[in-house]
């Protein structure tokens, strides 16, 4: 038998934040509760001196709970329809408005797909710790996986539960995007099928494209109308285009393809060459596709505020070795590590979000794959292309206008642009633009996707 007792003395067992019982205030004695018991918790109306006594039997036996609580008021009946949450996060108590801590912000809902994967394993704990949205921003995590990863999702939720993050107020898990994406304000779409042996690039575009078409429809149906979407699953530029095309009620400007890891890698290589720490490198742009046609822009980048071309005078190194190193960094990492990057990808997702929720430093900018309509550079409309952006810290961004181009840069940009247009034709059946026609010029997929 296991006994669980929840108490709320007047000395402050209830938090004065969002009204949820802190994990440290939950006392469990005797044997560990089974997963079924965890999932059996349901929201209970706020009441002083609530006491729950549970008798647990498994297998052929039964689960019996005696709950001594006041009768549930009619106005609280709607709590019964609340989507399933996990463990201690299901213990929800309402506080009077005047008891809420005013210094904390309104809870925000963040969905993460591929939540049982390696990237998410690094990312989720950064989100829950307050590192991303700030030390006074409570969050709810909504974790999307597949039927095959359901148990792994429960394991992730257990680790989050055991970490006692005070800002993490809710965790829910599911395999249906229409349930998981309900009211989310941020959607971090990481999950995608990796490229298998012998798989044609067009096949990968189609398989993953279908995933992101469905997720776009789900976001369009149930997410916040101003949800910010960051697509990580590759090929991320075209997946982001598919997603936004299937979500016409959400501004196309709200969709991003992650190229921040490429930007970080480029900054690292310039810092190494110049003999400075990487925080001295600014104004770094990745143009184009997240593939080996991407263009790390050394022409506009700066080191200690000075143009890179004035600090590193070896133009041949910049055009050849530097560019190729950044483009193929992921493949080299796989050779060394035996698997694709996970921790650094998670860090770059954090960087990408923080660039949108904190003001961009004066004179600097960051890279993100965004919708090209209305861009000031002459890049073809209606694709997702990595470009330099600035933000006021409100989740929105504007494209940087004060950049310079030369023939070398334009030639490289045009190649990446042509590749994205070919990818767009290859997924026309998923964007509502007719019959797909694949004429991909060459296989420029990143090594990590093979």
Name the beta content range.
15-25%
Number of helices: 12
Q: Show unreliable segments.
A: 1-82
Q: What is the N-to-C order of secondary-structure elements (H for helix, E for strand)?
A: EEHEEEHEHEHEHEHEHEEEEEHHHEEEHH
Task: Assign a percent range to the helix content.
Answer: 25-40%
Write structural notes for this entry.
The protein is built from twelve helices and 18 strands. The chain has 450 residues and is an alpha/beta fold. Strand 17 (384-390) and strand 18 form a beta hairpin. It is found in: Plastid, Chloroplast. It comes from Turnera subulata. One of its GO terms (molecular function) is L-malate dehydrogenase (NADP+) activity.
Looking at this protein, list some descriptive labels.
single chain; 450 residues; alpha/beta; 6-stranded parallel sheet; 33% helix
Quick synopsis:
The chain is of the alpha/beta class and 450 residues long. The protein contains twelve helices and 18 strands. Helix 2 (118-129) crosses helix 10 (343-357).
Element layout with pairings:
Blueprint: E1 3-5, E2 27-29, H1 35-40, E3 51-56, E4 63-68, E5 108-113, H2 118-129, E6 139-144, H3 150-162, E7 168-174, H4 177-180, E8 186-189, H5 201-222, E9 228-231, H6 236-245, E10 255-257, H7 260-274, E11 281-282, E12 285-287, E13 295-297, E14 302-303, E15 306-307, H8 308-311, H9 315-337, H10 343-357, E16 366-371, E17 384-390, E18 398-399, H11 407-426, H12 428-431
Parallel strand pairs: 5-6, 5-8, 6-7, 8-9, 9-10
Antiparallel strand pairs: 1-2, 3-4, 11-14, 12-13, 14-15, 16-17, 17-18
Helix pairs in contact: 2-10, 5-6, 7-9
